[in-house]
Amino acid sequence: MYFTYVRNCYNNPVRFETFEVNSFEQFCINYANEKLQQQFNLHVFKLEQEEYMKEQIPWTLIDFYDNQPCIDLIEAKLGIFDLLDEECKVPKGTDENWAQKLYDRHGGSQHFQKPRMSNTSFIVVHFADKVEYQCDGFLEKNRDTVYEEQINILKASKVKFEMLEKIG
Q: What are the angstrom distances between the C-alpha of 26 and each of 30, 93, 161?
């Protein structure tokens, strides 16, 4: 396991993790870290610098890394999550087919790479590090399965849940 530390909005280190095998859960954690870094950049660099300029405080602008392209790769239309959701809806969708769609769609992205020796993994170039993710299990983990027992517990609750009215 490898760690890269980045300071978040509260000046606490955000631990960006890379394991030997990275799967769906780690992808979601690293995506959340991308979003945290974006908030940090926005509030600490961009907005503060704009405020300094507005108040005419002598200031040398600081260049900072804009991770929006990486976030777009993950969350935009036809991004990694969108293609994953789409493949989950295909009756015989597979992790391998999803990986191929990622290669076809994002092969030219500066934040996406196909590993040389694999057809079932992909690399995202995050703000802190490159991370290779194994596609095995992504579809199953992404499916929004709510088990009958959980639905029954919620139905038995005295708290009103709007979504349960839609379920039945």
A: 6, 22, 31
